[in-house]
Amino acid sequence: MPQYDAIVVGSGPNGLSAAIVLARAGLSVLVREANETIGGGTRSLELTLPGYLHDVCSAVHPMALASPLFRSLPLSDHGLQWINPPVAVAHPLDNAPAAALARSMEETGATLRNDAAAYRALFSPLVRHWDQLAPEILSAPLHLPAHPFSLAGFGLRALWPAGALARTAFRAAPARALFAGLAAHSIVALDQPATAAIGLVLATAGHACGWPVPRGGSQQIANALAAYFRTLGGVIETGARVDSLDSLPPAKAILLDLTPRQAIQIAAKQLPAGYLRSLARFSYGPGVFKIDWALSEPIPWTSPVCRRTATVHVGGTLEEIEIGEKDAWTGRHSERPFVLLAQQSLFDDSRAPAGRHTGWAYCHVPNGSLRDMTAVIEAQVERFAPGFRDTILARATKNCAQLEQSNANLVGGDIGGGSNHLAQLLARPVAALDPWRTPAKGIYLCSASTPPGGGVHGMCGYHAARSALKHTFNLKAE
Questions:
Q1: CB-based contacts of 319: which residues, under 8 Å, 6+ apart?
Q2: In terms of CB atoms within 10 Å, which of 50, 142, 377, 417 comes out highest?
Q3: pTM of the predicted model as reported, rounded to 2 decimal places
Q4: Could you read off the pLDDT of 59-105 as tens digits, one per residue?
């Protein structure tokens, strides 16, 4: 008899979410985690100096509050507290006030000057229908929509290249730059189809929900999910690497919070040859070079609005961001890269000793890059915050290889679970109506390499668990 009904390999937010959905259905569930701490991309550690708490991977979570699964879970009862800064994201510019995305459409428009009306026309309908749109966006690419008209209104613009939509929708540099920074989260060159989608989603989420950070670090998301899972009778084992499915205890279902490369490695005996070949064709996107800083004081931004947010997009104009993202996409290192920066300690005093602060940043680089991008990242920040270098007390850096060493899912430094180009968004990781279910009986994929893709929302795990409940256990999820 199986020792467990189901086993989940990997304790990232998707793995823990899958485990929760299965346990809520009354099943016995084991989670196996290779690292000594749970969380995958939602871990926090003292990386620089004692008392300075840094997020190892993800830091700001615009999709967490939009997640239908997270909204259904009592995570606040298990210690998760969200902090929502007054401004979702700021985007500084040379010799001009920064553009900013605030919860208020009016406050946002005030930073975009002549494009305020155009911005409102683009985003107001999306914000108004966000409660209908979010579940649709966080579903499989091919599904019968519950709100087809809302989804169509989004989809017609989402298929555009981000650069083209920015130039068509807006006339001036601030709005174009703001949208380019949002779209650059796709980690795809902005002249590619459907790169507008992530920009539209992140802006809409910013107005509807904000861009929150968890008090005490991203680790608290994983801790809350794990604590709730344990109340359902779930078991978590850490320091328990799985090198082969043959090494696992007997179970009716196995769910892999792994990218295709790791799935091939540990399940080669169980998966059919044709499916293995399909998984092997899955492609990974550019990697990142990451820096964490211990700071003596807040980053001295020239533009005041940059001090009212936990997230700053550092990259200049639309044209500059396009060049930087094209460089990473085509295997080059940009000398002026787009930098995503977080300054959580401005709003969360648990991140650093009294009076001190932390900084978190990365730029996109070619997959597998070993180049040290410290100097160019810090030059970009210094460009908009003169004196920044003087505030640095210590830094910790990771190149692509070091990121993958810390978390095998970050293949070549790809933090999104695989490339987000259009074809792979539609067939992720393979073309299938149920992309979470493999052809092997009882084996499922639940990582960000499955729909709806990257981000901390747990919905990849949710959909995989629902598939397992239906096909292996003949049950329905709550």
A1: none
A2: 417
A3: 0.95
A4: 999 999 999 999 999 999 999 999 999 999 999 999 999 999 999 99
The SS3 assignment for 339 reads strand
CB 101 within 8 A of CB 207: yes
The amino acid that residue 20 corresponds to is: I
Question: Is 241 part of any domain?
Answer: yes
Q: How far apart are the first and last CA of the chain?
A: 26
- Is residue 53 one of the residues assigned to a domain? yes
Tokens standing for residue 464:
């995989």
**Both tokens assigned to 212:** 């929150």
Beta bridge partners of 54: 45
Domain ranges, residue 456: 4-81+214-283+414-471
d(CA 103, CA 100): 10
437: its two tokens: 């279910």
Do residues 354 and 402 make contact, with C-beta atoms less than 8 angstroms apart?
A: no
297 within 8 A of 358, measured Cβ to Cβ: no
Classify residue 311 by its DSSP letter: E
Please list, residue by residue across 185-196, b when 16 or more beta carbons sit within 10 angstroms of its beta carbon and e when fewer do: bbbbbbebbbbb
Do the strands 251-256 and 4-9 form a parallel or antiparallel pair, or are they unpaired?
parallel
CATH of the domain at 464: 3.50.50.60
